[in-house]
Sequence to fold (259 residues):
Amino acid sequence: MAASAPQACELIDACRLLCTQRKAKHRVHRWGAFIALCYWVSHGGGQPKLRNLENMPVDALMLKELNSHPFLKHVAGFRQVRSHETPHSTPDNVLGVMATCTLKLFQHYVEKLGQLYTRDPTVTRVIPNTIFSVTSYNLGPRTACFKHIDFAHLPFGLCSITDLGFYDPSKGGIEFPPSATILIVSGIVAHSNVPVQTHETHYSVVHYSPGTLFRRVDNDFRRSVDFIASLSEGALAVQERQSSRREMYLNRRRICILK
Fold:
């Protein structure tokens, strides 16, 4: 399967040359100066219902090709899925890194996001064998992220990052070779990466889930403002109850680390 990584890189580079976001105004953003193709469950803007992000037709077609590429599907399953524990994954029985290292956290994703997809069948997973709700293909060609914190991510959750390309990993601070994957707590830890050399290429594939999706489930599948307004116990009591989630999340995070 590792032999197909170069083919995945070729596909990613071809998408970079064809996507509608190759114009300069799309290339500089808070994460860096590179082209990114994203597919996610949309939740912002005060919208009453969740929906899948709508991309331009050309971009949507390229995302479909990327999501169905055997290597990229394999990497997604290797990182995240214990498929027999969720009905929304492919029947490959892959035991993923996240399920192995942080089983309770993995089960939290399966439970909460599983309810989300079951409640609204019109919302679909990015890749069938991943529990994460967002995939971002950072198309480079020399992807270098600014130092940042992803505040919208689930604070105690994990973000999966896989590096691809043709570069010398010994030239950076940490030797992180092509096709390697790391799981980080991206919602509370600042992170970045150094640029590769000018004759090299570097792409990355990122999977994560926004915290607001979990809050939607906790709020009976409604926005927080609508959920609070519907309760008779009063907004203050509800806010106090919601503030107690912080300690619960911290405890869950400790349990996840210790399995």
Notes: The chain is about 40% helix and 15% strand. The longest helix spans residues 103-119. The CA atoms of residues 165 and 202 lie 4 Å apart. Strands lie at 28-29, 32-33, 35-42, 51-52, 134-140, 159-166, 181-184, 201-208.
